[in-house]
Write a structure and sequence with these properties.
Length: about 500
């Protein structure tokens, strides 16, 4: 009976003044000015920082703080993952009261303890730029420090205003958020699972190289398709690439080359290599709700579906289709590990208060330097050779170049009938039937610092929809670094800032 009951909150100053004016005629009604969370960046940080909202009935326990009027608990992002740390501990007061319950005097008091201060790794300017650059697209962009795993930006679009939940979200707003097909409440960076498409080819390549399935100078003839039993597996380039070597296979993203690598090495070794680079299982990220993705094996299919693995599934597995799924965060981790070439960095969004890294460098990848060099050379060719699939989105500024890999993943199977007639262009299909566009990259090439993954849901071709976004974000990351270090000469070498209009 000593706990006050909330009647109404979030009064305007005019309403607050009116009730105060009439307070002598309202016995038992108390007015108070409290404190509340404010999220000044709005949608830009909605998924990373998260939001607080009113305490749910199932959250009530022994903590008296949760019974206080207007108290909030974390519901997503950092707010949820570290709610107990941020919350602090309640104090208490022992008082003497009379028969009417009126306090006569205070007998003892124990002060409450303030919550901890938390320091996030996210670069506010880069985060805002990444969200702005994604624009109206549905998707995600994740930027990591390749040496520490620090999350420098984690944009999931479209977003929402977290202040709505803190203030008490209206029914119309809640209905709008839940019915939106673009799923603004979902953190697509950690919870969106997509076929990685050709961005997965580096895993197939490393598995083949490390298993000794191919020599470093392996060449393959691409005629545009491969026949396996009664099925035909196509390369994206009708007519094929002709004779092609390892570097060129990544540069031009030849599917036939990777069908052959997958057939030689098999799904289990591909899955083992992918696991080393953070795919197919949670990365260990310090926010809750991370999805695990999937890199299938023979045993997985037998246990999950009760069916035997088929030879054709090995081929599509090798190009990141079929059962393979990954989150944008996982693909960014994969790219960071390729870029640093030594350690399995683990992503994190909190940094120590001192600013010093209190973690070790991480487990060793256990991959030969020669194999990684081959893959990195292929990724450099993707963005810096004229025939590379992302050459049009390259960073031309000397010393700031990026190395990357495009990906275009189908969300539906193209039937033989469609292939024999006219396949609808991506932009001609319904939005939900269009291909996902992906791009992963690291920069600068000669001394990697940043790794990025961009996914544009149903955006079509990765080189056109995702690569330019990643390029601009990597340029901005290096621009910010140069400006903060006072490297005026290097800043002058950067191209003009472009937010994509």
């Amino acid at each position: 009976k000593f706990v006050p009951i909330m009647v109404v909150e979030n009064l305007s100053w005019q309403e607050f003044a009116r009730v105060n004016f009439h307070s002598p005629d309202l016995p038992g009604v108390l007015l108070d000015v409290g404190e509340t969370r404010d999220y000044p960046f709005g949608p830009d940080f909605a998924h990373s920082v998260g939001y607080v909202a009113a305490v749910a009935p199932q959250e009530l326990g022994d903590d008296p703080l949760l019974e206080l009027p207007g108290f909030r608990t974390g519901k997503s992002g950092v707010e949820r993952a570290f709610d107990l740390s941020l919350r602090g501990k309640a104090g208490d007061s022992r008082v003497e009261v009379n028969a009417y319950g009126r306090v006569i005097r205070e007998l003892a008091r124990r002060e409450g303890q303030a919550g901890e201060d938390l320091y996030v790794t996210v670069d506010a300017e880069l985060q805002r730029f990444a969200t702005e650059r994604m624009g109206v697209e549905s998707g995600a962009a994740v930027v990591l420090d390749v040496n520490t795993g620090d999350v420098l930006a984690m944009a999931s679009t479209p977003g929402f205003d977290p202040n709505w939940f803190n203030e008490g979200i209206a029914g119309e707003q809640w209905t709008q958020l839940n019915s939106d097909k673009l799923k603004p409440l979902t953190n697509k960076a950690t919870q969106g699972q997509y076929p990685p498409g050709s961005t997965f080819k580096m895993m197939t390549a490393l598995a083949a190289l490390e298993a000794g399935a191919i020599p470093l100078d392996h060449r393959e003839l691409c005629l545009g398709q491969v026949q396996l039993g009664n099925y035909t597996y196509h390369c994206w380039k009708k007519g094929g690439h002709g004779w092609i070597d390892f570097t060129t296979s990544l540069e031009q993203s030849c599917d036939v080359y990777f069908y052959d690598l997958a057939r030689r090495v098999g799904p289990d070794k591909i899955a083992d290599m992918a696991a080393r680079f953070g795919l197919g299982r949670p990365t260990g990220f310090d926010l809750q709700g991370e999805r695990a993705g999937l890199v299938p094996t023979r045993d997985w299919k037998s246990a999950a579906l009760g069916e035997a693995w088929q030879a054709g599934e090995t081929l599509v597995n090798g190009i990141g289709q079929g059962f393979v799924l990954a989150t944008p965060l996982q693909l960014a981790v994969m790219t960071a590990r390729i870029a640093n070439g030594r350690f399995a960095v683990v992503p994190r969004i909190l940094r120590p208060p001192t600013g010093k890294d209190d973690r070790g460098p991480g487990e060793r990848l256990g991959v030969r330097a020669a194999s990684l060099d081959m893959v990195r050379d292929g990724m450099k060719a993707v963005t810096n050779r004229p025939r590379g699939t992302a050459y049009g989105a390259r960073i031309a500024a000397a010393g700031l170049e990026m190395a990357g890999k495009t990906g275009t993943s189908q969300v539906r199977r193209i039937s033989l009938r469609e292939r024999s007639t006219r396949v609808l262009k991506n932009e001609e299909r319904p939005w939900e039937d269009r291909d996902h566009a992906l791009f992963v990259a690291y920069a600068p090439v000669n001394k990697p610092r940043y790794a990025i993954c961009v996914v544009v849901e149903h955006g079509g071709n990765g080189s056109k929809a995702a690569a330019p976004v990643a390029r601009d974000i990597l340029i901005e990351a290096q621009r910010l670094e140069a400006a903060r270090q006072g490297l005026s000469g290097r800043t002058a070498a950067l191209p003009p800032r472009d937010t994509g209009g």
